[in-house]
Write a structure and sequence with these properties.
The complex is a heterodimer.
Chain A lengths: L2 E11 L24 H4 L10 H13 L7 E2 L2 E4 L9 E4 L6 E10 L2 E14 L3 E4 L3 E5 L6 E7 L6 H18 L11 E10 L8 E6 L2 H20 L7 E6 L4 E7 L9 E2 L6 E2 L2 H8 L6 H12 L3 H7 L3 H12 L4 H19 L10 H12 L5 H14 L3 H7 L8 H14 L1 H5 L6 H15 L5 H11 L6
Parallel strand pairs in A: 11-12
Antiparallel strand pairs in A: 1-9, 1-10, 2-15, 3-4, 3-14, 5-6, 6-9, 7-8, 10-11, 12-13
Chain B lengths: L5 H10 L6 H22 L31 H4 L6 E2 L2 E5 L7
Antiparallel strand pairs in B: 1-2
The chains are: A alpha+beta, B mainly alpha.
């Protein structure tokens, strides 16, 4: 039985106003070569100056991934020659990354699995290349952008685990607010190492570089496991090499073998002296790490008794989860808050493809709405109408209920009066009342509703009718 | 002691895209031998494995930059030195494959 072993190297561009070593704009743009400073082009005499925010973001992620942080920030040069790298080297971290020996817990169907992390390091991105038939074009906007690379141990054993790790890592990035991690903008890219073996020893590792979507990571892993297993089963030897995954065919091609491996000649970056990392600084950064997705999900299930499904839906984005937390903090019953959020609210957000930040609904309004139903001021059917109004107008529920004169009549004597009126008006039917015929009582409830324009509390109405009907005319 | 052979140097020259004369290889080979002898001597010092390599001779206060955009070149300036430009991008011979 062959077993696959997978390790991932995940790159993510972090979002800050300026780039990591240069003061040019770090934001994404489609217009080429507009966010470029001399540092990004490797002009003579340039000096990199570290962006404080980038280091803080990298340390934040390092701690969120349970890594050991260094006593100082230092950088190294990784030397290679390629048109996307104007300086001829990339400033990166080799000897002392911002984090080592961390882990991410991922939730698989059969329970939690811990993926250990070798390191996470801060570096600069390269320029982007577009390839055409006879030439290539270089856009330097991406050169020098803040890039953080996370490297897992080879401890992943299936495509499912690899994809779950990617998803979970992305959620941590989003929860920490360091990037939108959009793969359609190339913000998240992945190198995948796959080996296959039928003994306890690891097989020969094959690396696939720069895979641009989670979907393609899955395809590349499938293909490599199959290819390597076939090679081994036919008595062949898998060679250590770098392969390119072609997303059109779903096939990997040999790029270079071990003998051609690039020697990056790493050495300490002489232009950036070490910067001390104090315990106080780390504590300040640590305070900005929110409770993460998996932990929130577990809390929702254990503390609020929500179903795993509902909890999963709520924690999908931090914005929704924060909104839910705020509702609960205000004293709203968690299950009721959950129903409104996962049902009506998220339904609306999905339908209109907008974010929760763009709708005028606040946790206070949800609380008010739930209270109105709890106090039977409005029925749950009416509450839906109020919600629809609320999401369009931004008015609070009480105001809507007043304006629409929706208040239910819960006053017993008022309902009693209407019930008696209805019975008199339908004298014959009322006299014929037979408790076996449930339709009959529904007819009377309907009449009461008609008279009160739906404001009579249905449960109360039913109760009074059950009491009055058998006595009527006797 | 580790030895750097002529074959090693030829390999480095190829990777670094240098072209050297035959006698230059000989010179390099001799120079590397001397350098490695020095390293070997240093390696014999007691407790050397506990000494952290010095990369910065001076303790200097490093100043971090606040996260603001202060200077960006205009596109015109950025691509001024390029030999060939299409749609504000720099045109180079087709390269595929080696990206990191």
């Amino acid at each position: 039985m062959y077993k696959a072993t997978i390790g991932l190297e995940i790159h993510c561009e972090f979002e800050s106003i300026s780039k990591v070593f240069s003061p040019s704009d770090n934001s994404y743009t489609d217009a080429p070569n507009i966010h470029v400073a001399p540092q990004d082009l490797g002009f003579p005499g340039i000096l990199p100056v570290l962006n404080k925010k980038s280091i803080e973001q990298a340390l934040k992620m390092s701690m969120a991934l349970n890594c050991k942080t260094p006593d100082e920030i230092v950088f190294d040069r990784k030397n290679y020659y390629y048109p996307d790298l104007p300086k001829g080297y990339q400033i990166t971290q080799f000897n002392k990354p911002v984090g080592v020996n961390g882990y991410i817990d991922i939730e698989m169907e059969d329970g939690i699995k811990r993926i250990t992390i070798q390191d996470i390091h801060l570096e600069e991105d390269s320029a982007s290349l577009d390839h055409y038939d006879t030439y290539s074009l270089i856009d330097y906007n991406r050169a020098g952008r803040t890039l953080v690379e996370m490297v897992t141990d080879p401890c992943i054993h299936s495509k499912e685990e690899a994809l779950k790790l990617l998803e979970t890592y992305r959620s941590i990035i989003l929860y920490c607010g360091v990037s939108q991690a959009r793969s359609d903008r190339g913000q998240m890219r992945c190198d995948v190492n796959v080996s296959v073996s039928n003994t306890d020893e690891l097989g020969c590792k094959v690396e696939m570089k720069n895979i641009n979507s989670f979907y393609n990571v899955g395809r590349a892993i499938d293909y490599e496991i199959k290819r390597q297993t076939e090679v081994l089963e036919s008595g062949g030897v898998v060679e250590q090499e770098t392969r390119r995954f072609d997303d059109e065919t779903g096939i990997t091609y040999k790029m270079r073998d071990k003998a051609d491996a690039v020697d990056y000649k790493y050495f300490p970056e002489p232009n950036i002296p070490p910067y001390p990392v104090t315990e106080q600084w780390l504590n300040e950064i640590r305070k900005t790490i929110p409770m993460l997705q998996l932990e929130r999900k577990q809390k929702y299930i254990s503390d609020y008794d929500l179903s795993a499904y509902d909890a999963e839906v709520l924690v999908k984005t931090k914005e929704i989860s924060d909104f839910f937390n705020d509702c609960v903090k205000l004293g709203t019953d968690p299950k009721k808050a959950c129903n409104w959020i996962t049902g009506m609210l998220m339904g609306y957000l999905n339908e209109t493809d907008i974010s929760i930040k763009d709708v005028p609904i606040t946790p206070e309004m949800i609380k008010e709405l739930v209270d109105l139903v709890d106090k039977k001021t409005i029925s749950s059917k009416q509450a839906k109408e109020v919600f629809e109004d609320m999401i369009e107008s931004g008015n609070n529920p009480k105001k809507i209920v007043e304006e629409k004169r929706m208040m239910q009549i819960t006053d017993d004597s008022a309902i009693h009066d209407v019930v008696m009126e209805v019975l008199k008006e339908n004298d014959e039917q009322a006299r014929d009342y037979n408790p076996e015929k449930t339709r009959m009582i529904d007819f009377f409830v309907g009449q009461v509703m008609k008279k009160t324009r739906g404001k009579a509390n249905p449960a109360k109405t039913m109760e009074i009718l059950r009491e009055e009907l058998p006595k009527y005319g006797k | 002691m580790k030895k750097i052979t002529k074959e090693n140097i030829q390999d480095y020259a190829l990777k670094l895209m240098f072209k050297m004369k035959e006698d230059e290889y000989d010179t390099f080979e001799k120079e590397f031998e001397t350098i490695l002898k020095h390293m070997d001597l240093i390696g014999q010092i007691d407790g050397i494995e506990n000494v952290e390599p010095m990369t910065f001779p001076f303790k200097k206060d490093v100043i971090l930059r606040e996260d603001v955009v202060t200077s960006t070149l205009t596109t015109e300036d950025a691509i001024k030195n390029a030999k060939d430009v299409i749609y504000d991008e720099v045109k180079v011979p087709r390269v595929v494959g080696g990206e990191e």
